[in-house]
Design a protein that fits this description.
This protein is an alpha+beta fold. It has helices spanning about 25-35, 95-105, 145-150, 160-170, 210-215, 225-235, 250-260, 280-290, 305-315, 325-335, 345-350, 355-360, 365-375, 390-405, 415-430, 430-435, 450-460, 460-465, 470-475, 480, 505-515, 525-535, 545-565, and strands at about 15-20, 40-45, 45-50, 60, 80-85, 110, 115-120, 130-135, 140-145, 185, 190-195, 200-205, 240-245, 265-270, 295, 340, 445. It has 23 helices and 17 strands. The strands form 3 sheets. Strands 2-3-1-9-8-10 form a 6-stranded antiparallel beta sheet. A 6-stranded antiparallel beta sheet has the order 4-5-6-7-11-12, covered by helices on one side. Strands 15-14-13-16-17 form a 5-stranded parallel beta sheet, sandwiched between helices. The radius of gyration is 24 Å and the shape is globular.
């Protein structure tokens, strides 16, 4: 891996392969460009390789592979073809690809007599990247779980995808199929690429997942119902040691309360999120003490921040400016040998997180989308970061991509929370548990368990306003824990210095800004003056919005530093307007 080493795929395998009229020699290039893999399945129009054994969950195995004991339905011969999936939970029977995607949130490959289907999970949490080519025998598509191996097949010098960087700067993550490289694309959630053997061509299939097809209605779900469903979501892990990281908020204390009520083998760790407040550490102690959970504080070192930021950026392949603070915690998790219970999706599902009054009260779908995008986007910094021309490009490209990414949700009863879940949650926040904790450790997402998800989504938005419904859930799970101080409440804060603003970070950030400033017309005049003044000028970047813009520009500079020798023309699209 360029400027780093591959993760150890202990809990989730690394997978790559090809569909269509692929070239075996090109497949070998892909095979040798990533982590070590072995062949799982090969047939005309289909090849699948994995870093770990990957038996089919239905159908006939590849030659020499293990045979399933029974058919998917439990009787009769296996169906023709072979069904593969690579996630913690895999399907237990053959089914259409979208059923596997929405029920098990798994990507997979299905080889049937007439078609080969490569698909994502419904949210696309486990990444599938691909590169398309047309050769003398027709279309070919090569895919992998990481971007870097596919770059071995891409044309050099690589072409910059400015749309991806526009979204990373404005939202902190890209949208749609965008990656930093034009030629390598990401397969979105609820999407499949299908190779037709008779027609010898590849087509795209998109399916609205269950929660979009079947609009939720108010089922009168109670707080007790929600807690009972969380018990069901955690039941499959009763015999496994768990790590439940506890912060000062609602999600982690709820999950810890349920896990302890089930008498599971639980440890809890806490670290500082580098938000300038360490209430997480203080409040987590109260929660874990009340529940009787062994608790550990994972310390962080301000002098190590540049290395932590670089590790997270490379590990996440520069797809988001989030999660640098999580790096030392994630590496400790890799040593623990425990599945990690994560509260992914709790905010949008139960707290109306990022769903503003403007969005709720909007009279038209366009106004609702505009209000939601404004809530998701990084707000105004204390000084203009981008030039007028660059900012106009960013606003235009992100607005267009966001409208397309959320188009299937317009008019839906749960349009607002689902829009957050399908953009920010899936593309930005999920990178931490999926790509930093995993693939060495298994992330567990109880809030995405199908029965829980449907029940939580059915609760009307106004019932969740101000955290009212969530507090009912916490009381139903453990009234003593519910009464403890929380970062979700308006409480006095204990201010601490930001590691990302300390001397070591300022020096690193400044060097990356110098690199980013080489792009014509990217930065505003005031921002270029800051860069000229040196590292200590960055002490002014203390506000929330300014910090996020700064991290985006630093991430871009770090990417340029790592890839400058293989990148092509760096003239940005807005240069003609300068």
């Amino acid at each position: 891996m360029r400027n780093g080493k591959w993760p150890e795929h202990r809990a989730r395998p690394y997978v790559c392969g090809a569909i269509g009229a692929y070239d075996p020699a090109r497949l070998d290039v892909l095979r040798n460009a990533g982590p070590s893999v072995r062949e799982v399945h090969r047939a005309p129009g289909a090849a699948l390789l994995s870093s770990a054994p990957l038996p089919p969950y239905a159908g006939s195995p590849p030659a020499g592979g293990p045979a399933p004991e029974t058919s998917p339905a439990g009787s009769g011969p296996p169906p023709p073809g072979a069904w593969f999936a690579w996630a913690e939970r895999v399907p237990d029977r053959a089914a259409p690809w979208w059923a596997a995607a929405e029920t098990w949130e798994t990507p997979g490959l299905i080889d049937e007599p007439d078609t080969v289907t490569l698909h994502t999970g419904a949210f696309g949490l486990i990444d599938v990247y691909y590169l398309s080519e047309t050769g003398p025998d027709g279309e070919a598509l090569y895919f992998a779980g990481n971007i870097e191996p596919l770059l071995a097949l891409a044309r050099r010098p690589y072409e910059v995808n400015w749309d991806a960087w526009a979204a990373i700067l404005k939202l902190t993550y890209p949208l749609l199929e965008d990656t930093p490289y034009r030629q390598v694309r990401r397969l979105p959630g609820s999407t499949a690429l299908v190779w037709s053997r008779p027609q010898r061509r590849i087509t795209v299939e998109k399916r609205a997942p269950r929660w979009v097809r079947e609009e939720p209605f108010d089922r009168g779900v109670t707080a007790g119902d929600v807690v009972a469903l969380l018990h069901e979501a955690l039941k499959p892990f009763d015999d496994r040691p768990l790590l439940v990281p506890v912060s000062g908020g609602y999600d982690s204390r709820l999950l810890a309360s349920v896990a302890m009520a089930r008498k599971m083998d639980v440890e809890s760790w806490t670290t500082s999120p580098d938000d300038g407040l360490d209430n997480d550490i203080d409040f987590a102690r109260y929660v874990t003490r009340e529940l009787g959970i062994p608790h550990r504080i994972v310390p962080q070192d301000a002098t190590a921040y540049p290395g932590e930021a670089r590790w997270a950026a490379r590990r996440l392949e520069y797809l988001t400016s989030h999660h640098a603070w999580y790096s030392p915690f994630a590496r400790e998790v890799h040593k623990a040998g425990r599945a990690v219970v994560d509260g992914l999706a709790g905010g949008p599902l139960m707290k109306n997180f990022l769903i503003t009054a403007d969005a709720v009260g909007a009279g038209t779908s366009a106004d609702r989308q505009s209000a939601l995008l404004a809530a998701l986007a990084t707000g105004e910094p204390h000084l203009p970061m981008l030039s007028d021309q660059a900012l106009a490009f960013v606003d235009d490209r992100v607005g267009t991509a966001f409208a397309q990414a959320t188009s299937m949700l317009r008019g839906h009863r749960s349009e607002l929370p689902l829009s957050v879940l399908h953009t920010r949650t899936a593309r930005g926040i999920a990178r931490s548990p999926v790509n930093l904790v995993g693939p060495e450790a298994t992330p567990v997402f109880p809030f995405l368990h199908p029965e829980f998800f449907d029940a939580a989504l059915s609760v009307p938005v106004d019932r969740k306003e101000g955290g009212r419904f969530y507090r009912e859930i916490l009381r139903a799970a453990n009234s003593r824990v519910a009464a403890l101080p929380s970062t979700n409440g308006a409480l006095p804060h204990r201010r601490v210095p930001l590691r990302s603003g300390g001397p070591a970070a300022r020096e690193w950030n400044h060097r990356m800004l110098v690199k980013a400033a080489t792009i014509p017309g990217l930065m505003s005049g005031p921002m270029l003056d800051v860069v000229t003044q040196g590292p200590d000028a960055l002490t002014a970047f203390g506000s929330w919005n300014s910090r996020f813009w700064l991290r985006g520009l630093v991430l871009f500079g770090s990417w340029l530093t790592d890839y400058e020798d293989v990148l092509g023309d760096l003239t940005p699209p807005w240069a003609s307007a300068l």
